[in-house]
Amino acid sequence: xxxxxxxVTSILPHGGTLVxxxxxxxxxxxxxxLAETLPCIPLSEAAISDVELIAHGVVSPLTGFMVQxxxxxxxxxxxxxxxxxxxxxxxxxxxxxxxxxISVGDQVALCDGERILAIMEVHDRYGYDKRREAQEVYGTTxxxxxxxxxxxxxxxxxxxGPIWLLNEIPDGRFGTYPRYPVQTRAIFAERGWRSxxxxxxxxxxxxxxxxxxxxxxxxxxxLLLHPLVGExxxxxxxxxxxxxxxxxxxxxxxxxxxxxxxxxxxAMRYAGPREAIFHALCRKNYGCTHFIVGRDHAGVGxxxxxxxAQRIFxxxxxxxxxxxxxxxxxxxxxxxxxxxxSSKTCPHSRDDYIFLSGTQVREMLRRGEAPxxxxxxxxxxxxxxxxxxxxxx
Length: 393
Ligand code: ADX
Hints:
Sulfate adenylyltransferase; alpha/beta; five-stranded parallel beta sheet; single chain; seven-stranded mixed beta sheet; globular; binds adenosine-5'-phosphosulfate; 2 domains; Rossmann fold
C-alpha cells in the first residue's frame, strides 16, 4: 500500500487484499431477517473463532470455510488451489444429522447457541479423512495431541462456502485492546512505524520471551505483543490472567511508545511448524513485517523438533510468505553471563544455566513460591501465584 507520495506505508495482506466480510447497515438488517428463517448450524468455540478471523480479514485471503478443493490442496500442498501458501485447514464440521438437512446451494445461519452470528452460502459438503489430516497437519495420529483430539471429536462432514458476519462476536473481556487487522494497521500508521515485529504467545511473559522481544525490537520500529486469546488447552494459563501479566511487564519494563498490546482471537491448534506459518501469515494481515519464531513454536509435548517450526519457512520463498521470520535459538538465563543468552551467545555450561520446565513452574506457583527473578519478573510471579490460588479455591 502506498501513500500520496508513493512511500510504502504498510505491508500488503496475504493475497493482496484485506478481506472484510462484515455486513453493515440495511444489508445486514435484511440478511439477518433472512437468516432467522434458515436452518441453524451450531458452532463450537473454535469455529466461532474461525468465523471471527474470516470476517475481519485475519485469515485473508479466505472469505469463508474451505470447500473440498481448498481443503485437499491445503492438507497435501500447504497451498490454496490458486497458489498462495496456506498451511492449516479452516473448515466447518457438522454432524451427519445436520449434514443431511443441508444441500449445496442452500444458505444457512451459523449460530452461537440461539444467537445468529453469520450467514453462509453452502458451496460444498464433503467427507474427509481425519487420520490423514492429523498426520499431514499435526505430524501425528495420536489423540494425546490436543489438536488431533479436537479433530477426532469433530463431526464427520465438512461444509464449505463464503460467509458474512451479521452480529459481532462479543469481546467483553478484552474490549480495550485492538483485535482486528484494520485496528492495528491504523495504529501502526498513526505511530509512523514502517517495521513491526509480532510476538505470538499463549503463555505469561517470562524473561526469555522478553529477551526475544527486546532483541527484535532493537532492529525494528515497534513490537506488536500479540497473545492468543481463543481456546487453549485446560492447563495453559487462562487468557485473562495472561493479559494482566502482559500489562504488568509492559508498565514496568517496556517503553510505552514502542509496544502495542493487542489480542489474537484465534484458537490454539498446537500444530507446531504448520501453525508457525499460519501465525506468521495472520500477523502479516495485522500489518506486521517481522514475526518471532523461537523454540518449539506452537508445539506441545514432544511432537516436534525444537527448530522444526523455523525450518518449515525454508520450504517457501520469502516473497510468498511476505513477512520475515526472526528465528531465535533456545534462550535461558546464564549465571556466569548474568544475562539471558542462547548457545549462540554464551560459552558456559549447563550447570551455569537456570532452566525451568512448565511443570516445575506450575508446581512452584502452586506451593506459593515465586520462580527466580532470572526466570520471571517478580511482579508477574506474584500475579501468577495469586491466580493459581484463586483457581484452586
Ligand atoms: S506458543 O505456543 O505461542 O509458541 P509460547 O507462548 O511459549 O508458546 O512462545 C511464544 C514464542 O516464544 C514462540 O515463538 C516460541 O518459540 C518462543 N519461545 C518461548 N520460550 C522460548 C525460549 N526459552 N527460547 C526461545 N524461544 C522461546
